[in-house]
Amino acid sequence: MNTITVPNLASPEFKANPYPFYARLRAEAPIFRTTLPSREPAWLVTRYDDAVALLKDDRLAKDRRNALAPGSKAPWVPAMLRPLAQNMLDLDAPHHTRLRGLVHKAFTARPIERPRERIQELCDDLLAAAQRRRQLDLIHDYAVPVPATIIAELLGVPVADRERFHAWSTRMVSTSTPADMVRLLPTLWQFLRYLRRLIALRRADPRDDLTSALIAAEEAGDTLSEDELMAMMVLLLIAGHETTINLIGGGTLALLEHPGQLQRLRADPALIKPAVEELARFTSPVELATERYARVDIPIHDVVIPRGEKVLVVLGSANRDERQFASPDVLDITREPNKHLAFGQGAHYCLGSPLARMEGQIAIGTLIVRLPTLRLVRQPAELRWNKGLFVRGLTQLPLAF
């Protein structure tokens, strides 16, 4: 009989240190059925090899409708939210393949290396302002504005709207219960109304930005519909900065908690690339991969995941699996090999991973060089984490220097 007590997986208290719970699941119940805060049953997949296999498994659908039994009704979606259902994160081939191809074409029209100088300039300006103030909340003053400004500029969103976009996306990723979803509706309405206006402006007056490129993207005569455009922009705005905020914030905290590793990186700045890979593994800014649904009964280990049920691959657990990583709870910025799953795996591998890596490398590398006496103001146990099922990030990180 299973006696594992499941905490609230979306609570800030759990986010502070989820790793002991995941270690127990890997040891005792690597494919574990639980009930989410939304009161929906789901299977947690916690071992690395299982995670890799299932993220590539065609028996799992991203679109819930593709996992329904014959004659079953698709879940009802409010009319206002239907445009969001057209995002490629929640679709399967061939629809996902088509959308990813169109978006990839728009991305490659604007080489991802182009923002490098802008990211560096932004980091320098933000840290200069912090030095003048003699104070720094790493999240609000640095980790948020770096990726939020870059994705806003890439999409052609005025920088003046950056904070609104961050507030909207934070509310969206913090949703974990039906009540949260109801409270989210006004935010979604504002977000979608804003995007409709922006798309209309870019249709009438194209610019050198990603929104205009998405509107113009064409593959064999195909284009994105209005709903697909809005869904893609919502996805890019959230995925394009929310996870990078967590990488910069959580990665900096990890370095401050491991002063030997921080000193090693300061002494050899060329280690920033493997360091960011290790920080991505160690902190897993996206803690759970977004949901998948069993198209058929799936036997795995000593259980069967029934058709139609939700499957959640726990990236934060797979990245700490002792079967894959030597001393997985140890931060080692020179770890090699480091085949972490922080950016996913398979057909839905993160399209923006090159940009996230670049932002993390520049932001963290610049921070530790410019502020060599950086230190925590609060004890790690006193820090508060954001609420939410899928991502793991700090609300604040006050630092002294």
Automatic annotation (TrEMBL):
PROSITE patterns per record: CYTOCHROME_P450
A Gene Ontology molecular function term of the record: heme binding
Highest taxon of the lineage: Bacteria
Stretch forming the signal peptide: none
Gene3D superfamilies: Cytochrome P450
Pfam families linked to this entry: p450 (PF00067)
Sorted UniProt keywords: Heme, Iron, Metal-binding, Monooxygenase, Oxidoreductase
Cited PANTHER family: CYTOCHROME P450 YJIB-RELATED, P450, PUTATIVE (EUROFUNG)-RELATED
Protein family according to the UniProt entry: Belongs to the cytochrome P450 family.
Protein name (Swiss-Prot/TrEMBL): Cytochrome
UniProt organism field: Kouleothrix aurantiaca
Organism classification: Bacteria, Bacillati, Chloroflexota, Chloroflexia, Chloroflexales
